[in-house]
Amino acid sequence: MVSLLLAFGILIALFVGFNIGGSSTSVAFGPAVGSNTISKAGAAALMTAFALLGGATVGRNVITTLSEGLVPEGTFTVGIGIIVLFFIGVALFLSNVVGVPASTSMTAVGAIAGLGLATNSLNWGEMGRIITWWLVSPLIAFWVSGVIGRYLYPWLVTKFAVTQTEGSLVKLDRSAGFPWVTLGPNTTTREFVGTSLVVLIACYMAFSAGASNIPNAAAPLVGSGDLSVTNAILIGAVGVGLGAFTIARRTLDTVGNDLTELPLLAALVVAVVSSTIVAVLSELGVPASFVIVATMSIVGLGWGRATRTATLSETVGRDPPDVSVGALAAESEDAPTVGGKTGDPSRVETKPIGDEESEDLPKASDLFEPGTTARVIVLQNVVPAIATVAAFLVFRYGPWF
User: Fold this and answer.
1) Distance (Å, whole) CA 8 – CA 103
2) What are the backbone angles phi and psi of residue 258, rounded to the nearest 5°?
3) In angstroms, rounded to a whole number, what is the distance separating the alpha carbons of residues 143 and 246?
4) Exposed (0-12), middle (13-18) or buried (19+): which is 225, by Cβ within 10 Å?
5) CB atoms < 10 A from the CB of 2, how many?
6) How far apart (Å, rounded) are the C-alpha atoms in residues 328 and 1?
7) Burial grade of 25 (CB within 10 A; 0-12, 13-18, 19 or more)
8) Tens of pLDDT along 188-221?
9) Whole-model pTM?
């Protein structure tokens, strides 16, 4: 009977990983695929490899927290692990229904916390540490991105400007008697470096996603002692790969997520800030929500960009600037990022802080709506709360427990 339960648990873990791969691939590789820098198959392969790397390295710390940090070692059984995975699966289903991604990490913590409350074994110190980081990390993302938007973003526009040329990026040269990769016939060094940076950042995001999310599919079965950490990570990574090669292809077509609706440069800035924060939290063993961190990074970047219309001294005693994340769309046509066909970076003029007018930061299109942002943040917290209450009721009053 236990073996059948374990097999069922592995199937659910694969399903959770499958959904993680389907959603995370578009977030990580949307900009790279959208700019024709990499194919969908290439994105899926890199997503699988780097998610596995993230889960197998810093992700182990998150597995420890989820499997034995919140509740004492030995509390989990195969049946309990399956129920926790069920709650995570429900969260993924709800996110698809309402169109807002639910945090699998926060839902997993909520379900395990419900188990701890039901058995009077919850480690309140560990739970407090996790919640503290949940509150602090979005603020860090906002302010770091705000500083970048205010002081560095215009400079980055000029330095990161890359015009995409015709033909392949690289070619195989055999003139020396052995195969050697060289730049394509029209490829400039600037284009090669910029394009490579887009792919490297995408791989970094995949690593961060694996470190944060693969433990959600693996930890419940590790906690029961029926699977080793390594085997559980491999199962989660297989699920991620299946999702990346299948359902992710559709989301990569539309690139329909908050990050990839941004200009490419803004998306990459948000990706680096968010991935770094999530990776650091994973190293600390803290399950984190990438969506909340990324959302606050988007808001902070737009806020910082819009405040360039006034110096700090000018803001004293006057109304605050008209802040719109649409300011991020004010990239000069002379400085396209990877995927642009025209433009001359040398013609770009970066005005000092205080000299830019609101007209210089056109509201070409709102990159986020306040109502949508609020809905994302609220549901990211409501779903884990529901998981906590439901798990408590199941584990406290379920007759099979």
Assistant:
1) 23
2) -60, -35
3) 37
4) middle
5) 11
6) 57
7) buried
8) 777 777 778 888 998 999 999 999 989 988 888 8
9) 0.82
